[in-house]
């Protein structure tokens, strides 16, 4: 383990901590052309869809049910990541600490859930597995170490996020969990949370940078990410349950960064297949956005690349 590197990162985290102002995006204008393109793509979808897009250079936006609450599915792991780093910045956790896994933590048979009882694993390894592979057992472990869902929700509220919440294993949120599952958000809030990480406004610039690097290592790249050229830097998190599919992506496009979040719920198509209607929609809308902003770099996945979808 690169202990001294971790110690250096931790010392940077504790330099210049600050509290950002509540979420308040001013000076935005509707991108009517892109809004129409996306609205046309949503016609006939068998379920509910929300979309939010913001060009970070021009501040032009798309809002389609952008403030409607949707299930996060695994996108909840972005707020959990913030909760863990809030603890790290306060010295209540150590970035280089080694954790001991116990069978009582087991949720499913992912990487962390397959560890033997008493196995040791560094905290940053679990964070990486949470964001890159979306490891559920590791994520619930991190939620607990962050102080639980209630503590994470208090942090979210302090940053002005009114609707993004952790529901699972959180006192008082049992009814919300029945409706939305592990977590809930709106397309606008999830996209702007990721945009704040990009801007260095979450906890501190050093913390934001570390979280940014973690979010840039995404294994699950078969949906919205698959429509962005592989040479383009992105950060992302997606989520899927039977009747809901979602993805939040921030793209470093040639003509300026943009962020989008696409969410669905109450889908009729609940199949776990690449051609699930929600997954197809994620790819379709992501491609529309890219081609709208980068017409000179119009790009399609190579023929035959769909065989590698999972």
TrEMBL record:
Signal sequence extent: 1-20
UniProt organism field: Persicitalea jodogahamensis
UniProt GO molecular function: beta-lactamase activity
Catalytic activity: a beta-lactam + H2O = a substituted beta-amino acid
Family matches, as Pfam families: Beta-lactamase2 (PF13354)
GO biological process, one term: response to antibiotic
Name of the protein in its database record: Beta-lactamase class A catalytic domain-containing protein
Lineage: Bacteria, Pseudomonadati, Bacteroidota, Cytophagia, Cytophagales
Annotated keywords: Signal
TM spans (from-to): none
Location of the Beta-lactamase class A catalytic domain: 50-264
Record-linked SUPFAM superfamilies: beta-lactamase/transpeptidase-like (SSF56601)
Lineage top rank: taxon: Bacteria
PANTHER family in the record: BETA-LACTAMASE, SLR0121 PROTEIN
């Amino acid at each position: 383990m690169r202990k001294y590197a971790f110690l250096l990162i931790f010392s940077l985290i504790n330099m210049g901590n600050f509290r950002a102002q509540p979420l308040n995006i001013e000076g935005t204008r509707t991108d009517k052309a892109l809004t129409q393109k996306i609205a046309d793509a949503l016609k006939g979808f068998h379920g509910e869809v929300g979309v939010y897009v913001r060009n970070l250079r021009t501040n032009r936006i798309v809002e389609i049910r952008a403030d409607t609450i949707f299930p996060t599915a695994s996108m909840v792991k972005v707020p959990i990541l913030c909760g863990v780093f809030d603890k790290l910045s306060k010295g209540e956790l150590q970035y280089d600490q080694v954790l001991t896994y116990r069978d009582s933590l087991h949720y499913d048979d992912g990487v962390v859930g397959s560890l033997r009882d008493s196995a040791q694993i560094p905290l940053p390894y679990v964070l990486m597995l949470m964001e890159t592979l979306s490891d559920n057992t590791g994520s619930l472990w991190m939620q607990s170490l962050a102080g639980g869902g209630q503590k994470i929700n208090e942090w979210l509220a302090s940053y002005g996020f009114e609707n993004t919440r952790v529901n699972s294993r959180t006192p008082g949120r049992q009814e919300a969990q029945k409706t939305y599952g592990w977590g809930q958000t709106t397309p606008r809030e999830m996209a702007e949370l990721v945009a704040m990480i990009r801007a260095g406004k979450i906890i501190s610039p050093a913390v934001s940078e570390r979280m940014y690097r973690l979010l840039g290592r995404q294994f699950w790249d078969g949906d919205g990410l698959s429509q962005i050229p592989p040479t383009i830097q992105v950060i992302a998190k997606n989520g899927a349950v039977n009747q809901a599919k979602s993805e939040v992506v921030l793209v470093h496009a040639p003509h300026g960064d943009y962020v989008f979040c696409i969410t669905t719920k109450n889908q009729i198509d609940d199949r776990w297949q690449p051609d699930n209607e929600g997954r197809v929609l994620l790819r379709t809308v992501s491609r529309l956005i890219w081609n709208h902003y980068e017409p000179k770099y119009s790009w399609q996945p190579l023929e035959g690349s769909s065989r590698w979808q999972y």
